Amino acid sequence: MASPTDRRYTKEHEWVRVDDGVGTVGITDYAQDQLGDIVYIDLPAPGTSVKQSEKLGEIESVKAVSDLYSPVSGEVVDLNEDVNDHPELVNESPYEKGWLVRLRLADPTELDALLTANQYDQLLAEAESE
Q1: Domain count, the chain
Q2: Would you say residue 33 lies in a domain?
Q3: Minimal CA–CA distance to 68: which of 93, 113, 31, 95?
Q4: Which terminus of the chain, N or C, has less C-beta within 10 A?
């Protein structure tokens, strides 16, 4: 499955899609597949400031608990309440219904440090060939 081209990616398998200075953040299809069945997600409250590449929250699956990292710096302006009640949405729809938080970007130039969809897909291809 090719990664959606309307967003940027981290090497830790998070994505961000920006609309009018607000970034919607989630995890990639690859990440949800590696985690397995997701059972719990811990996310920061609106108003929380986060920094690029620092811990944003935790995601728990039947296999493990993993840290989530913020792809960009900013302030949390919205949480996906649906994933609190139904964490399986991240497995079912990681790029649409399974988004996690929305951030008001502090520095839009941070997007330049992230991977494009083609670069991310290449990263996955290289990892699979090892």
Answers
A1: 1
A2: yes
A3: 31
A4: C
